[in-house]
Amino acid sequence: MSRLGRAANRAADLLFLPPLDRLWLRRLRGKVLCLLYHRVDEPGREPFLDRFGVPPIPPKELAAELGVLRRRGARFLTYADLRAGRFPTDSEFGVIVSFDDGLRCNYEQGMDVLRSLGIPAVFFQSTAMHAAGELVWEHALYWYGAHPRLAPRLAELARQRLDLPADLEGAALIARLRDGTPVVRVRELLAELAERFDTAGALAAAAARLYPGADHLRRAREAGHELGSHGHHHVPRCNISPEAFEEELIRSAAALEQVLGEPPRAFSYPFNSHLPGDGEICGRHYLQVATVDAALITPATPALALPRFTWPGPHANPLRRRRWLCTGTLAWPGR
């Protein structure tokens, strides 16, 4: 963003001074604002996720954000409420709080925040992320990429096996492997690294620390939260075939049903990666599909394309927070 653009963006924050709240809340009436968070944790606790993944929101910050919406009179809903036809009236506005991936901290620190405020939420769980398993391919990639001794070995092997440019390294290399390389090739790369450098134990220890157990999921359901699917291995749809994508849907639903005794009804796309026709595939296994396509939900919104707004990261100032909570975005108002 240019210097002029940054100045204009800062000026737009002034549109979110407290006296203007009623104007922004009026825009939300009769609609649902669905917010997406990924990791409720303190920065620095998991450096490799901090470096390459989505930044964490500290529990106090999450409590502050949701507390603002609660004080403004938000009606907090879940996807199950939408399925049951419980939608905000024209005189109220709805909020759905959702979490993707399914890291353990969301079921611990995140649920503590939700409990303190009496707010239900939707947890979209990638079912390969469980404490008794191993790091999923994405997190293993981050782990190697942040390791001071093994990061150069990852880059070297990637260049050899995948014919990548010699100057591709660091965050650019991780992004290329994650977003632009077939997942099967990345898994082969990671398997070779694990065998060469005997890292299976370290990766399993990280998984035990990061991922929830079945009891976490059951406690969330018992507390009134909804559990949905976020696929099994958390793979971008653009990097797998339609058949592999549908297998991810089926496998995740079966895993959640085994833990919870009932299949999930809602699914969210990993990385918000989806292609034309994917809604039809999802509809064979789920009643609702969540995207991150940044729009408000209305009664006319298709159930297989329910948009959400993803948390933009730490806020530069209190007005920026109000802007996010009023609109779900830090783009120009009305866009």
Q: What is the gist of this entry?
A:
With 335 residues, this protein is an alpha/beta fold.
SSE arrangement:
Layout: H1 3-12, H2 21-28, E1 32-37, H3 47-52, H4 59-71, E2 75-77, H5 79-83, E3 94-99, H6 104-117, E4 122-125, H7 137-146, H8 151-162, H9 170-179, H10 183-197, H11 200-210, H12 214-222, E5 226-229, H13 242-260, E6 266-268, H14 278-283, E7 288-290, E8 309-310, H15 318-327
Parallel strand pairs: 1-3, 1-8, 2-3, 3-4, 4-5, 6-7
Helix pairs in contact: 4-6, 7-9, 8-10
Say how many strands there are.
8
Structural class: alpha/beta
Low-confidence stretches: none
Helix content estimate: 40-55%
Radius of gyration equals 20 Å
For the residues shown, what is the average pLDDT?
94
Q: First CA to last CA: what distance?
A: 17 Å
> How many helical stretches?
15
Beta-strand content: 5-15%
Describe the global form.
globular
What's the SSE pattern? Answer: HHEHHEHEHEHHHHHHEHEHEEH
Sheet of most strands? 6 strands, parallel
